[in-house]
Amino acid sequence: MTSTIKKHNTTLGTRLRGSFFLVSLLAIVLSLIVGGLLIAVTDEETAKAAKYLFAAPGDTLSAAWKAAAGAYAAMFRGAIFNYQAESFTGMIKPITETLTMATPLITAALGVALAFRAGLFNIGAQGQLIIGAVLAGYIGFTLNLPWPLHILLVVLAAALGGALWGGIVGLLKARTGAHEVIVTIMLNYVAVYLLAFLLSTPMMQRPGSNDPVSQIIHDSAKYPLIFGPDFRVHFGLILGLLATWGVWWLLERSTLGFELKAVGANPSASRTAGINTTRVTILAMVLAGALAGMAGASQVSGTEHFVVGGVAASIGFDAITVALLGRSRPLGVLVAALLFGAFRAGGVAMQTQTGTPIDIVLVVQSLIVLFIAAPPLVRSIFGMNARKARAAAADDSKNTTPTPPSGTVTSGSTL
Amino acid sequence: MRIIKRKAGMAASILGISALVLSGCGAAPEASTSSSSAPTVDYTACMVSDEGGFDDKSFNQASYEGLVKAQTDLGVKINKAESNSATDMKPNIESMVSAGCDIVATAGFNIGDATLEAAKKYPEVNFAIVDYGYKTLPANLRSLSYNTDEAAFLAGYSAAAYSKTGKVGTFGGAEIPTVTIFMEGFLQGVNHFNEVKNKDVKVVGWGSSKSFVNDFTDTVKARQISDNLLADGVDVIMPVAGPLGQTAVDAVNESASTTDAVVWVDTDGFDYAKNGKDAVLTSVIKEMGKTVEESIEMGLNDKFKSEAYVGTLSNGGVSLSPFHNFADKVPADLQSEVDALKQDIIDGKIKMSAAK
User: Fold this and answer.
1) Which of A164, A316, B97, B241 is disulfide-compatible with B173, CB 3.0–4.6 A?
2) pTM here?
3) Based on the number of CB atoms within 10 Å of its own CB, is B87 exposed (0-12), middle (13-18) or buried (19 or more)?
């Protein structure tokens, strides 16, 4: 008896998760199609051919197809595997670029996801990342320490900086009820302008220069390159993978994670149940900040090696998208970050090889999120009628006898 | 009334649709064998922008125009990559090198380190960077900077001579050296005018006070600064803020006084500023495009020179534009005075004190 129920429940669970996976996949396909249309429409050759659309419609269509297919082929060559390269290094370089671009996104998005799970809409990854980068840079170029110690200190400082920036938010939220969205947005501004100010002071500014650029960090403060000097993949990626596992363990296996999710689901009920919501809220933001701060270390110690005003790029904001796309699940976040890394790496090649504006990549990214946020839209476009499916599911449940929930049934991993 | 409106709407839509249809009615071009007009040479010049993009109305755009000019003048192939953020710059340069570029041009301090790193890594490719300098240059890197204070000095002198209110103003996009050097030169030019003519023309926005937008995109704030300067009695404004310079032109055009004017920077505002023909007194020209094109030509002819090029009044890298429509509105002797000052600066009789 129990065995059949267990089976039924898991299939339902996988079906639900599978359907979300399917919707995500279809959303990606759909946005690639729309992106392809945009590429075709903005393409000069296509525009030229469109002038005599009725005289030779084939020309326009083939030009449009060539533009879109060419752009996506270039994107593939830039993000996964370059089959046109002459050397093996050149062939596998794209996939390593994807990993490099994804590295800071992984940890930053994990931070955002963790806060989401605790019911906190953390917009502040950007600010936390900047503070992390500032501290990583400062420790990186001021101290002179042997290699493993120095880099360790850099990562710790970055995480602490981010944790502080996130902790402020948690504290204000928990103690005063300040809304975390407003607080994080404002702290983003504070971080941006603090960085701009610091870059104009002798404390950070490169000696002999009036430009707002920091000194270059020492070699001992750089992440080791995993695949040698030909590739930019650095140790931050390993830390990102460890962090993914760590966040999964925290959420699914630890008491704090349980409390965190409980507070996220219903703070009043959790308080009644005896959970210290103040502590949980603060801790969630501290951890989220630390993860975002680590992304700052990845930027400074991994790829850029110095601090400028734009050191954080748009990673902190992309992280929100990645966390949403990954449904705030650690593994989902990892996959989504890799996807976004691939888009960024591919966008570079797309731009240089086919002249397609890199903005198209941003459009595709945004469309993915848009479609994922509206599953019924995707379902109706692809003829997956939700009502019919639901009716079928209801029919299905009628046939099985309801049973009391058992421990084995509910403790499925959500990884 | 409503019927008319609807009819008008219908007519408009019919017109629109027919335009759409007609636009697709051209004759197909006959298949022709490729016979390009300009003889293209086997040399590719490329450019990687920083976050500003190629439409920043500032160094990225100016350098890119040099690239395009090289394409038409020299027949080289060109390629460009726009960086959306700091993380894009290194991959973009790498991508350009692997796409077979012979010379890669970049602009600004944001991309300075990435350019140097790439120059060291790829000694067979030439690099040129606008508005940035290094302590030591590898043999394949050329840095292009400009003593814009020399030309701005002339602009400051002219503005002071033209001013009816005895107050001239300036504002910058951000307090960075490539911006403040204009403002400092402008201030010194005004001070020189006061000394020579025993006048007391004031400068607002640099010197005793500082005014900055803090970015190069906030048109609302830039317009506010321009309006405030005009309200303060300033009648000549020099905006040093890339695309935001247009807001000063708009403010001057819309102001009650007909004598207000703008000193444009980077390009000749007479041609480049929108509605600038009767608003731009003069322009401090920084020949970024020309020097980028020169660098490309050097590379093309195997004469690439690794040097820290500095554009001056003497070598024509910076200059003051003619007064154009203001020629008869400025004091009669001004043009000759400016020419004499220019010669004095070239001869070293007038020295610029370092911008601080």
Assistant:
1) B241
2) 0.81
3) buried
